[in-house]
Amino acid sequence: MDEQHFYIIDFDSTFTQVEALDELARISLKNNPDREAIYQKIEDYTNLAMEGKLSFSESLAQRVRLLEANEEDLKKLIKHLKKKVSKSFSRNAAFFKKHADEVLIVSGGFKEFITPVVSQYHIKKENIYANTFITNSEGKIIDYDHANPLSKEGGKVKLLQNLNLKGSLYGIGDGYSDFQLRESGLIKKFFAFTENIARESIISKADHVTPSFDEFLYVNNLPRAISYPKNRILCLVIGDVPQESIALLKKDGFSIRHKTEFEEKYVKDVGMLILADGEKIEQEKLQRAAKLKTIGYLGNARNKFSIETCNNMGIVVFDDPKANPRNASFIPKRVIDFMNKGTTYLSSNFPSIQLPALERSHRLIHIHQNVPGIMAQINTAFAKHDINIVAQFLMTKDNIGYAITDINTQYDKTLFKSLKKIEHTIKFRVLY
């Protein structure tokens, strides 16, 4: 019998993008003339505890004391938090449904706002461990249950010791209390979650840094919405590119390196290139960039690199020949849309396709030479592997054929080998 696995997940700044008590303060104190100073005190107490510089119990007591919140404020907070679930957790709801028995939310936050948020994701109420508020007859929060181990320093360790779970335990979180589980030896690995906040004092102690929940699922070979985490795709930005462009790419989760030139050490691994107007790519380096999928050029790309080589390698190019001022956002958005959905709308060298994002399916991209019979071979491969095709698109331009197929999520991965072996294939990619 296989060993059971358990996934111990933090709530604040992990499952959600924010610290809930900080957000509750902004709701409950919005009419307080001293609210900005109080907000800052609460945030300071939060950060001191998360970095291990103040005991959790002291931090919690001070924050609750400053809140001046009531049950109506909690209702507003819950509505707000439901919109602030971390993107990578939100898109992997199917994982939580399939592994409902193994997922535990363990938090120093409060059940009153945690349960309504995580229950949407099939997480069982009996698997939610957190503190509880004490309210008076008027519904005002006046205290919390001090007997709960999670209200004390080292509370997560005490709780896990009491639960005595049998199997391999993996912890995911952003703070010191999450690392303490690893330090205690109760969990097999601690994954520092950095999608929302990166605390260097925690990152340095982690077994693995996970910039998204997709990364955690990927390294543990668990089912996920995205086949390959975006944080593993190297996006190289070259030259005087506006910060607006870089910010858009960072926000979408790609691994960004901003350099003054196309350095040799990045050639074999680069997946995306963003170039400032006037930058060039040496032909020899372009030919060796085997993982390169797309180039975004903030200006006219003519004579700056070989479009013919890009065609032969299946590299989609987006540029702006008229050097429109909007290209600081326009070009990165086109590149992001291609990486996320396979959309080639307004590409310089590929057939122009606009595609919707589909749920509960995998999108496969097959780039090939535009010769007769390719689609027949692609669909024969699908038929041989009993694949259910959800949707299919094909466009051609000059010597390039661009086929996108959305398939059912259940499939044999030997299908990929069959598609790559089709004669005249230029590039094959599983999009998500």
Can you describe this structure in just a few lines?
InterPro entries: ACT-like_dom_sf, ACT_dom, AHAS_small-like_ACT, D-isomer_2_OHA_DH_cat_dom, HAD-like_SerB, HAD-like_sf, HAD_sf. The protein has 432 residues and is an alpha/beta fold.
What does this molecule look like?
- With 432 residues, this protein is an alpha/beta fold.
- The chain folds into three domains: 5-219, Rossmann fold; 233-341, NAD(P)-binding Rossmann-like Domain (Rossmann fold, 3-Layer(aba) Sandwich); 361-430, ACT domain (Alpha-Beta Plaits).
- It has helices at 11-15, 20-28, 35-50, 56-67, 71-81, 87-90, 93-98, 111-118, 155-163, 176-183, 200-203, 213-219, 243-251, 283-288, 307-313, 327-341, 374-384, 414-420; strands at 5-9, 103-110, 128-131, 133-135, 141-144, 168-173, 189-193, 208-210, 234-238, 255-259, 270-276, 294-298, 316-319, 361-369, 389-397, 400-408, 425-430.
- Strands 3-2-1-6-7-8 form a six-stranded parallel β-sheet, with helices on both faces. Strands 10-9-11-12-13 form a five-stranded parallel β-sheet, with helices on both faces. Strands 15-16-14-17 form a four-stranded antiparallel β-sheet, with helices on both faces.
- A hairpin with a 2-residue loop joins strand 15 (389-397) and strand 16.
- Helix 3 (35-50) runs antiparallel to helix 4 (56-67).
- The chain starts with a strand and ends with a strand.
- The mean pLDDT is 92.
Characteristic terms for this protein:
Rossmann fold; Alpha-Beta Plaits; six-stranded parallel beta sheet; alpha/beta; coiled coil; globular; five-stranded parallel beta sheet; 432 residues; EC 1.1.1.399; D-3-phosphoglycerate dehydrogenase; 17 strands; HAD_sf; amino-acid biosynthesis; 22% strand; 3 domains; 18 helices
